[in-house]
Amino acid sequence: MGIVSPGFHGRRRKSAAELPPGQYLTNDFPVLSAGPTPRLREDEWEFTVTAESGREHRWTWREFLDLPAETPKVDIHCVTKWSKLGTEWEGVSLDVLLADVETEADFALVHSYGGYTTNLPLADLLEGQAWIVHRYNGEELAPEHGGPARLLVPHLYFWKSAKWVRGIRLTTENEPGFWESAGYHDYGDPWREQRYQGD
Ligand SMILES: Nc1nc2c(c(=O)[nH]1)N[C@H]1C(S)=C(S)[C@@H](COP(=O)(O)O)O[C@H]1N2
Ligand SMILES: [Mo]
């Protein structure tokens, strides 16, 4: 009997073929932040959806916690090529947060405390594809991973999952966010390896 690598027991490992192209598996949870970690108290946190009409829908931390929560278990894929499988989160589906928002917009620009932005089609936030999450692995979301709360949109590269999320502005025109303005792909589908503009 040879040496068994740690973590190899129990559940079946996915092979590289089950990962998006160019990705490798990690069991760590790397921290990738373009700037300093904002330190926000929960009583300072609020989340705002702004429709293209200018109409705002706002939730305080307490109001957010009163919304029905889900516990998505998802694979995440960073454009720097690490993927992490079966990550467990808790949070509120964007279907819930956008349910009463009247809009004809096709695009969303997500804003974070600290100034980070990222854009995506509004349709990619709906139908069970995206959440505002405040817990990871059964614990409060750590500040370096976006706590008090972050966006989770796992079917796109992880730069779309804005940490320290502050709000979402719905727009009729597509407006590139922070990395999208810096040469990264506008949409960022890891299965089509849309890392950079032109991919
Ligand atoms: N506000 C904010 N959100 C962000 C980022 C950032 O720099 N600022 N980095 C993005 C990138 S590139 C990745 S890969 C993930 C990293 O999340 P993690 O640090 O929890 O692994 O957050 C994304 N969301
Ligand atoms: Mo990333």
TrEMBL record:
Residues 1-22 are annotated as: Disordered. InterPro entries: OxRdtase_Mopterin-bd_dom, OxRdtase_Mopterin-bd_sf. Gene3D superfamilies: Oxidoreductase, molybdopterin-binding domain. It holds the Pfam family Oxidored_molyb. Residues 35-179 form the Oxidoreductase molybdopterin-binding domain. This is Sulfite oxidase-like oxidoreductase. It comes from Actinomadura chibensis.
